[in-house]
Automatic annotation (TrEMBL):
The keyword rRNA-binding belongs to this UniProt entry's keyword annotation: no
UniProt entry keywords in alphabetical sequence: Transferase
Organism: Dictyobacter halimunensis
Upper classification of the organism: Bacteria, Bacillati, Chloroflexota, Ktedonobacteria, Ktedonobacterales
Residues in DAHP synthetase I/KDSA domain copies: 13-253
Protein name, per record: 3-deoxy-7-phosphoheptulonate synthase
Length: 264
């Protein structure tokens, strides 16, 4: 089975699925949309590096209410402009049912973040939305695989079968990594569901130096793609600066991704 992203806007269509015929999809971009200059430059450079989709948070689920919360609807408009510039379909997070309409209007794929995997009204809202935008459902901070699959069921049962899972690490006791990336969830999920699974080694490790190796591990485990955070000037990033890669580092991940897929 495969999920097609980008059907309703003027951009590339990208198929995400687990058939061995399909190349893995690399989604990349900044953690947050910070400004027009930052986003347009990032979008162009991730496209040049070989990414097929653009990510960027406009509504940010921050641990502290005093941290940058995202540009909101202004950020959505910038994402649409970046899509127009590059032809890359866009994925961005929606945090509340009341905002599903506006996020679905601008985005090609709706992201449900880790903190909202258990937000059943939000899952129903993205499931029943008439535009049936593909949904990327990230694993909850400490969700079991069964809980994660049941969260996906909420979306499907509400009427939207276009769900992609994203493993982004789970909480544990060790602070050498931000989260523990559960690479084994990929082969386990293949036994349990037809839904495609992506790996997010950026949130999964929390440190840029660990991202490339875990990206390779994810593809080797059979993931249908990757989601990677990229920033031009990581030291200045407003969010998640420790895990941001440069566009050059992204390019080498894209090359590795194709090379590994080739031998699977
Ligand atoms: C994100 O991908 O922007 C994000 C906030 O990740 P997570 O929900 O996995 O923490
Ligand atoms: Mn982030």
């Amino acid at each position: 089975s495969c999920v097609v992203v980008g059907k309703d806007h003027d951009c590339q269509e990208v198929a995400i699925g687990d058939s061995s015929e399909l190349a893995p999809v690399v989604i990349a971009g900044p953690c947050s949309v910070e400004s027009r200059d930052q986003l347009l430059a990032s979008a162009q450079s991730v496209k040049n590096a070989g990414a097929q989709m653009l990510r960027g948070g406009a509504f940010k689920p921050r641990t502290s209410p005093y941290q940058f919360q995202g540009l909101g609807i202004e950020g959505l408009k910038l994402l649409a402009e970046a899509r127009q510039l590059t032809g890359l379909p866009v994925v961005t997070e929606v945090m509340e049912p009341a905002m599903v309409d506006v996020v679905a209007e601008y985005a090609d794929m709706l992201q449900i973040g880790s903190r909202n995997m258990y937000n059943y009204p939000l899952l129903r809202a993205v499931g029943s939305h008439p535009l049936k935008r593909p949904v990327m459902l990230k694993r909850g901070l400490s969700a079991t695989i069964d809980e994660w699959l049941l969260a996906a069921e909420y979306i499907v049962a509400a009427g939207n079968p276009n769900v992609v899972l994203c493993e982004r690490g789970i909480r544990s006791y060790d602070s050498h990594t931000r989260n523990v990336l559960d690479v084994a969830s990929v082969p386990v999920l293949k036994e349990l569901t037809h839904l495609p699974v992506l790996i997010d080694p950026s949130h999964g490790t929390g440190f840029s130096r660990l991202v490339p190796v875990m990206a390779r591990a994810g593809i080797a485990a059979g993931a249908s793609g990757l989601m990677i955070e990229v920033h031009h000037n990581a030291a200045q990033a407003l969010t998640d600066k420790n895990q941001a890669l440069s566009p050059m580092q992204l390019q080498s991940i894209v090359e590795d991704t194709y090379a590994i897929h080739e031998v699977l």
